[in-house]
Amino acid sequence: MTARDQAIEQLLSGLDPEQREAVTAPPGPVCILAGAGTGKTRAVTHRIAWRVLRGDMRGQHVTAVTFTARAAGEMRDRLRGLGVSGVNARTFHSAALRQLRYFGTRRFGGQLPELVDSTLKFTAIAAARAGLQTSRAKNFDLTTEIEWAASSLIGPDDYVSAIAALGRDAPAAPEDVAKVYAAYIEAKRRAGVMDFADVLAYTADLITDHAATADQIRSQYRFFVVDEYQDVTPLQQRLLDAWLGDRDDITVVGDASQTIYSFTGATSRNLLDFTRKHRNASLVRLVRDYRSTPQVVALANQIIGESKGREAKMRLELIGQRPPGPAVTAEVFADEAEEADMIARRCSKLIADGMNPAEIAVLYRTNAQSQAYEEALASYGVPTVVTGAARFFDRPEVRQAVVALRSAAKTDIGAMPLGEAVPAALEAVGWRPDSAPSGGAQREAYEAVAAIVALSEQFLEHHRANPDEEGPDPDLEAFCAELSRRAAEQHAPAVSGVTLASLHAAKGLEWDAVFLVGLADGTLPTTFARTETALEEERRLLYVGITRARELLQLSYGLARSSGGRERRLCRFLAPLGLGGFPRPTDPGAAVSKPRERKKAKVLDCSGCGKPLTDARDRKLGHCEDCPATMDEELFERLREWRVSVAKQDGKPAFTVFTDVTLIAIAERCPGSDSELASLHGIGKSKLDKYGPAVLHLVNGGEVTEAIAMCTSEE
């Protein structure tokens, strides 16, 4: 066996039969239907490596298109690990922009239009010129609609008839939207700018209209791989067709059951029709789920098993490969405030029990639901990461940290070993490894910088694991170069914190523990989903959310939006399943009542003014912010001193012992017994058993050292 044959055999050795079939399919059109957690990235990277090792082409001849910069970065990293370099792994827009900048200057007279990140102001200009009175919110809706039309290859002249044929709701009178759309295009032309849709359209035009450019691009890129093919828009497909020309060496990967971006113009039509378009295509189905426990997989199969429409004809029934795990739990809370508080409390407990915050996620249907969970988690001192917020390398604290590292590389710190140099350099921005705030925005900023430190450690480990390839240990300057590369590719490191994300933003991610919240009919599915097509997309959203969980999955909703509000029904996709903890209506149209054995949450009133308490922090303290209770400052300081020592001896963050809010409540109430202590928020049975005697000792005037010893003796 030759060295090449051995390398190929080693490459294929860890694949299951279906993955191996996908990897070794003959050159030409290949469609891989890959269910959630079935190893699609593994399959496509190994297919690329297999083609390169066989000698079909070099890595530089491959274009792999993904939908996020993070996914592109992960693909490049995996390919490097397989010994393949030079692959053009990018998003559609990144790949197109690179080609446009190289080939497009002649088309635009030597100067490309400037690419603008935000086109909102041009929509506002266009609306004014069209004689339409708008607000910022209305302009945002118009911008979204114009982006959808452009991605769907619908121009201003065809807009009115197109949305009528589709039955699509417009953000304004269709004729007015068409006028704004036309004025928007003119506003861009006058300003000499282009948007992201223009990048794709201009590149496709360039290849289609200029034979020399087409020949050069097609001779360079001979094999194409497209990930998440169910999310390709007509405009992206047009560019892909231009890249291919009359060739068909393309591998597409997708899952019709994860089609959730139709509002952007994405359509699963290209995936569904792939084997019809390419009659000689190989079709492979990946159904072995390596991500989730059988309990999670079973629920996912139940949900998607009831789907309808074209996508349902290509649904996959997943087969769980992991050992059994805990049952999926379901719970109804009195209202959304109680739901947020209890979910935050459970996240805090998981972290206190040793789970990494980065392995926990709270997922919801709309971004507006985020704030309640941000506040609730902050009140328990739990760090959070809000997916969909500012991009990692655009965060101010990250930019300051990178500047500090670059500056330090030119000083004596630059000569220190990398593991010492990075923390030393970051002291300039006030970051220290033992100075994590308890929660909130400051904690999120701290964890963002901590992610850079962790990345430096991974960077060093990678070099040491590949000494022949990478050379001696890298220094701070080399690490700064790595940060620059990642920033250019938007390949962000993982930040430690509980992830808060919409179901759309969660696509492509996974966690050990997932809380799916707000599962009330009208929120999921949204009230705007009026057609069967729209409702089926909402079902797929729920399916995507369920399949993000590896081990723990909890489903929940608040019976009312606020205390005493109108009762709501359970999500219609879940209601027929009879999950324990969720009510099951006998009539699908009937309102869902809370289980009888479950008591209404007690409405807490402020101890000062008597008004109902709705804020999570106020409920824990027992009074509103405007009616502060008298706190024993000396007791509070002794409690903090005790907490720091106990946390240090347990090897855990201080907030996992008690949060600041709980310490404040203790110092305000001065409980005199176990029952009084247990009545405070943040003190459950386990913490009462472990820390209760020490806390009561401090409340009664005992010494801090004695209280610490009491905890030590229990251990």
Keywords:
alpha/beta, 715 residues, six-stranded parallel sheet
Query: Regions with pLDDT < 50 over 5+ consecutive residues?
Result: 586-603
Q: Give the strand content.
A: 5-15%
Structural class: alpha/beta
Which overall shape is indicated by the principal axes computed on the Cα atoms? Answer: globular
Biggest sheet descriptor: 6 strands, parallel
Number of helices: 29
What is the average per-residue confidence, as pLDDT, rounded to a whole number? 86
Oligomeric state, counting identical vs distinct chains = single chain
Helix content: 40-55%
Spatial strand sequence of the major β-sheet:
3-2-6-7-1-8
Total DSSP E strands: 16
Q: What is the CA–CA distance across the termini?
A: 59 Å
Please tell me how large the radius of gyration is. Answer: 28 Å
GO molecular function: helicase activity
Binding site for ATP: 34-41
Protein name: DNA 3'-5' helicase
Domain HRDC: 629-709
In short:
The chain is an alpha/beta fold and 715 residues long. 47% of the residues lie in helices and 10% in strands. The longest helix is centred in the middle third of the chain and has 26 residues, at 440-465.
What does this structure look like?
- The protein is of the alpha/beta class.
- The strands form four sheets. A six-stranded parallel β-sheet has the order 3-2-6-7-1-8. Strands 11-16-15-12-14-13 form a six-stranded parallel β-sheet. The protein has a two-stranded parallel ribbon with strand order 4-5.
- Helix 23 links the parallel strand 15 (511-516) and strand 16 (549-560).
- The longest helix has 26 residues, at 440-465.
- The radius of gyration is 28 Å and the shape is globular.
- Residues 629-709 form the HRDC domain.
- This is DNA 3'-5' helicase.
- It comes from Glycomyces niveus.
